[in-house]
Automatic annotation (TrEMBL):
It catalyses: L-seryl-[protein] + ATP = O-phospho-L-seryl-[protein] + ADP + H(+); L-threonyl-[protein] + ATP = O-phospho-L-threonyl-[protein] + ADP + H(+). It comes from Corynebacterium uterequi. GO terms for biological process: negative regulation of fatty acid biosynthetic process. The lineage of its organism: Bacteria, Bacillati, Actinomycetota, Actinomycetes, Mycobacteriales. This is non-specific serine/threonine protein kinase. Its EC number is 2.7.11.1. Residues 313-376 are annotated as: Disordered. The keyword Isomerase does not apply. InterPro entries: Kinase-like_dom_sf, PASTA_dom, Prot_kinase_dom, Ser/Thr_kinase_AS.
Length: 732
């Protein structure tokens, strides 16, 4: 981008007076219009606009259209130039600042303040929409606030004018955070595109941030193709639902679902203001803005005032009055205000005339001889000239001294807001100052971008100028081991965060009384000035001894270990109600609170439980009992009936009974004294004989009747016979 020095004159008319701001699209200077003698803002575009014929043509077309827009909420365009080498716009000079700078100073706005800003923005934007113009780059940087609190929109059409023919399809033309979906995907642009951008601005006014983010401008821009803008009330408390609806309609992804143009948006805004009965609000002027700092430097009017009083070296001459030549139309001359005329000498008081006395008419008096005027000598001329020179030199000395001891000896600190710290330090050093840096946390200025300078605008040449660089938003600091709450409060305070004490919590790692955790967690990014809750440790969380009665010893050990407790002594006792090798009780008892690593003693039952072997054959039952450690005996009880003569019908002690191991280990198998007769009707005698033999009974039939079928049995099914007894049947 072409750079100009203070004093350079554009097209013989606009003299560079002071730089205001520098951006990616242009550099803005405060200039003096030498023809009209007024201060103006001149925006000098990037080089490719001046060097590319198509860009120059596009710039001229957009500049002419901008110049047609006249409204109090629009920045006036006075003139433009787009010749080979440089392209620039001459605009109304705004000495307040941008909405971006106001947001940086004050943060989110309450609804009535945001409505006041948007009312002016949408009013100005609707004028352009009515004339068929689309802005294409509505954002806080293009919304200016004058010193009379008037909000104005600027830079109509400049995004399109600045577009270069070499842009590719992967480039985003405009500011990613505020682009409409159709600007991202290449769909046709309409006033609804500006409505979307204005809706994003309203969202930012209410919340202090834009709705989407991304690692790159392209990623940021593409967020809006698949995601809706969230309700502002989700980000910050106090936003009425009607404002959520305004933002939702203005930022609908499909243009046809939005307000069609700024006028519709404005009407809806006014309805919301009326429904909520919001008070009127005067938009404040930013105090720490580039325009404000530039305005604090007096406009240099040197060169506008022409005088030769002290410049001539010729002898003093008295010249006859002459008629000044006719002024040429293109000639510019601005004169100082005339010096005040000397006070008039008062006339002497009139003397009363004597009363008239009749007398003859006197003879005419002779005409008086003219007295010769004092001659104008060379000596008197030199004396006058010398006196004037001395007086002039004295005045100049006084003015120079006043200037020097006032502001003259101070140099201008270049505007570096928004630049990277390295570029800003380089520019400040190049301006003749000693540059240093400091950091401050800031919600809106990105990390490593410049917030301001200290001092902000002027300093003695060679003196120290501190470039204040943004550290971005603060993060919740980590918790160093053993740090006290006072020391942590100091660390957090260095990040603009305040510390409050929250509820104490249990912690296995932090000693009691030290910091256990924070809310939010360390590393969380917060707005400047946020509060972090610190939770002190109550030590490890108490562990409650579980109920383990009846639980097998192995399972009890596992349960205590999982809870963080250790098993101490294992004590064996007999308990007729608890199986052997299972827990009878714990010491300390269930429900007791312990610390991790504490010991629990277990009392375990030694009882032996008689296995249930009923229904097994005597041989199988004996084997099972012996495996369990019991001695086995057998007895036949006449009162018992079984399926077979060797089926165990009971034991003594009974199945499931718990016994002391030291008392007895002998179990008696009880075999039946009678056998239950099965149903053999319908069987052949041969088959019935085999069945009865297997269970210890016999059949009362001849061997020769083997193939006969039993029609009826005289000993009914279920009746009991002693072992070896005969079952009587009738076969045919």
């Amino acid at each position: 981008m072409t750079e100009f020095a203070i004093g350079d004159v554009l097209e013989g008319r606009y003299r560079i007076d002071h730089p205001i701001a520098r951006g990616g699209m242009a550099t803005v200077y405060r200039c003096v219009d030498l023809r009209l003698g007024r201060a103006v803002a001149v925006k000098v575009m990037r080089d490719h606009v001046a060097n590319d014929p198509a860009s120059r043509s596009r710039f001229r077309r957009e500049a002419r259209a901008m110049a047609q827009l006249k409204h109090p909420n629009l920045v006036d365009v006075y003139d433009f130039s787009s010749e080979e080498g440089v392209s620039f716009l001459v605009m109304e000079l705004i000495t307040g600042g941008t909405l971006r700078e106001l947001l940086a100073e004050r943060g989110p706005m309450p609804p009535h303040a945001a409505a006041a800003v948007m009312r002016s923005v949408l009013t100005g934007l609707s004028v352009a929409h009515d004339q068929g113009m689309v802005h294409r780059d509505i954002k806080p940087d293009n919304i200016l606030i004058n010193t009379d609190h008037q909000v104005k929109v600027t830079d109509f059409g400049l995004v399109r004018a600045m577009r270069h023919d070499s842009h590719t399809t992967t480039e985003i033309i405009g500011t990613a955070a505020y682009l409409s979906p159709e600007q991202v995907d290449g769909s046709p642009i309409s006033p609804a595109s500006d409505v979307y951008s204005a809706g994003i601005v309203l969202f930012e006014l209410l919340t202090g941030s834009v709705p989407f983010s991304g690692d790159t401008a392209l990623a940021h821009a593409y967020q809006r193709l698949s995601r809706d803008v969230p309700a502002p009330s989700v980000r910050i408390d106090g936003v009425p639902p009607l404002f959520d609806e305004l933002v939702a309609t203005a930022t609908a992804r499909r243009p046809e679902d939005r307000f069609a143009h700024a006028g519709e948006f404005l009407d809806a805004l006014e309805d919301v203001v009326a429904d909520l009965q919001l008070p009127r609000y005067v938009v404040p002027v930013p105090t720490n803005s580039a325009a404000h700092r530039a305005a604090s430097v007096p406009t240099d009017t040197s060169g506008l005032f022409e005088t030769n009083v002290f410049g001539s070296t010729a002898a003093t001459e008295m010249l006859p009055p002459t008629t000044p030549p006719a002024r040429q139309e293109s000639e510019t001359r601005v004169f100082d205000a005339p010096a005040p005329a000397p006070a008039p000498v008062p006339a002497p008081a009139p003397v009363p005339a004597p009363a008239p006395v009749p007398a003859p008419a006197p003879a005419p008096a002779p005409a008086p001889r003219p007295q010769p005027a004092p001659p104008v000598t060379n000596r008197s001329g030199l004396r006058l000239s010398f006196g004037l020179v001395l007086a002039g030199l004295a005045i100049i000395a006084v003015l120079i001294g006043a200037w020097w001891f006032g502001s003259g000896r101070y140099g201008e600190i270049p505007p570096v807001i928004g630049m990277s710290s390295a570029d800003a330090v380089e520019m400040v050093a190049a301006a003749g100052f000693e540059a240093d840096t400091s950091t401050e946390y800031h919600d809106d200025v990105p990390r490593d971008a410049v917030i301001t300078t200290d001092p902000p605008s002027k300093a003695l040449p060679g003196s120290l100028v501190t470039v204040v660089v943004s550290a971005g938003k603060p993060e919740v600091p980590p918790i160093p081991e053993g740090i006290s709450i006072d020391d942590y409060r100091t660390i957090a305070g260095e990040r603009t965060l305040t510390v409050a004490t929250g509820d104490s919590v249990y912690s296995d790692s932090a000693p009691s009384g030290s910091i256990a955790e924070t809310t939010p967690k360390p590393g969380t990014v917060l707005p400047v000035g946020s509060t972090v809750k610190v939770h002190l440790s109550k030590g490890p969380k108490p562990i409650t001894v579980p109920e383990l009665r009846g639980v097998a010893l192995a399972d009890a050990r596992r349960s205590l270990g999982d809870a963080g407790l250790r098993v101490g002594e294992v004590i064996e006792v007999f308990d007729a109600a608890v199986d052997g090798d299972s827990v009878v009780e714990t010491n300390p008892g269930p429900g007791t609170s312990l610390r991790a690593g504490d010991t629990v003693n277990l009392v375990v039952s030694t009882a032996l439980t008689i296995p249930d072997v009923t229904g097994l054959t005597a041989d199988d039952a004996e084997q099972r009992l012996e495996d369990a450690g019991f001695d086995v005996t057998e007895t036949v009880e006449p009162g018992y009936t079984g399926k077979t003569e060797d089926t165990v019908v009971d034991t003594s002690p009974a199945p499931g009974e718990r016994v002391r191991p030291e008392d007895t280990t002998e179990v008696t198998l009880i075999l039946p004294g009678a056998i239950s007769v099965p149903d053999v009707t319908g069987m052949t005698v041969r088959d019935a004989r085999g069945l009865l033999r297997d269970i210890g009974l016999r059949i009362d039939a001849s061997l020769f009747d083997g193939d006969k079928v039993i029609e009826r049995q005289l000993d009914a099914p279920g009746s009991a016979l002693p072992p070896g007894g005969r079952v009587r049947v009738i076969a045919s």
